[in-house]
Amino acid sequence: LIATSCAVKKYTVSPAFYTSGSDLGLIMVTNDITTRRSGASVLGAALIDYHKYDAPLEAVDPKLDPEKKFRRMYLSLFESKGKNITQVDDQFDREQFPKFPTPDKSREYFEYDLRPLKEKYNVDELMIVTVDYGLNQNYSGAFEAGKGGYAHVASSIIDLHDNSIIYKGETWGNGKLKSKWDTSPDFEYLREAIDAAINQAVEIEKTKY
Q1: In angstroms, what is the C-alpha Rg of the chain?
Q2: CB of 203 within 8 A of CB of 143?
Q3: Which of 37, 49, 84, 125 is buried most, with the most CB atoms less than 10 Å from its CB?
Q4: Three-state SS for 170?
Q5: In this structure, are residues 57 and 126 in contact, taking their beta carbons and an 8 Å threshold?
Q6: Is residue 60 scored above 90 in pLDDT?
Q7: How many Cα atoms within 13 Å fall on the side-chain side of residue 155?
Q8: Reduced to 3 states, what is the DSSP secondary structure of residue 63?
């Protein structure tokens, strides 16, 4: 199920994964809407107003539902390929599990021991998807150079028989602001930019399985 390159390990899901008859559990972890910043210097970071966009993001968040979009996509995609998949838990905290001692250095294993979840959820594999989304700010020193919507997805599929990683990857989505972000009271252009980033990430994720 794993393909590797000489530089960076690249995971691909083999056709046998879908036809094995095994059951896959899906866990969605969606973090709170936030502002992501990049490019600021140390001095510039000290001058940034980190709460400038808090109220606008809180205003648009109820109109965004990234977890629903990703969940529907994964369930539909895997079912269309013949994979038994079900959502199992939305209160997942990996750090509640003990660290996993790697038995074989030639394979990659999940950092925490999730094997007890095999019996708990009655599944053979577990897919953990973590979603972050919100506003991305690009800085040049202390000055904002641009901004737009963003979505980031990190996903792993773990074999619960031995805690080995079947698949691991990440996806970025970006959305442009079509006009000024501060169009109160609804901040519609801000919402559209974030929603566009989420939709882009959903479409990219579809191509990876």
Answers
A1: 19
A2: no
A3: 125
A4: strand
A5: no
A6: yes
A7: 29
A8: helix
In terms of DSSP bridges, do strands 9-11 and 23-30 run parallel, antiparallel, or are they unpaired? unpaired
Residues 6+ apart with CB under 8 A from 22: 84, 124, 125
In the structure encoding, which two tokens stand for residue 168, read together? 């691991």
Q: What gap in Å lies between CA 183 and CA 192, rounded to an integer? A: 12
Longest dimension (CA), the chain: 56
Beta bridge partners of 172: 152
> Rounded to whole angstroms, what are the CA distances from 29 to 118, 144, 159?
19, 30, 19
How confident is the model over 76-122, as pLDDT tens digits? 999 999 999 999 976 788 889 999 998 888 899 999 999 999 999 99
Q: Please state, in angstroms and rounded to a whole number, the distance separating the CA atoms of residues 121 and 45.
A: 44
CA atoms within 13 A on the CB side of 11: 18
Residues 6+ apart with CB under 8 A from 14: 1
pTM over 0.90: no
Q: In 66-183, at which residue ranges do the beta strands (DSSP E only) sit?
A: 84-89, 125-141, 143-159, 164-176
Q: Which residues pair with 28 in a beta bridge?
A: 129
Q: Which amino acid is at 80?
A: S
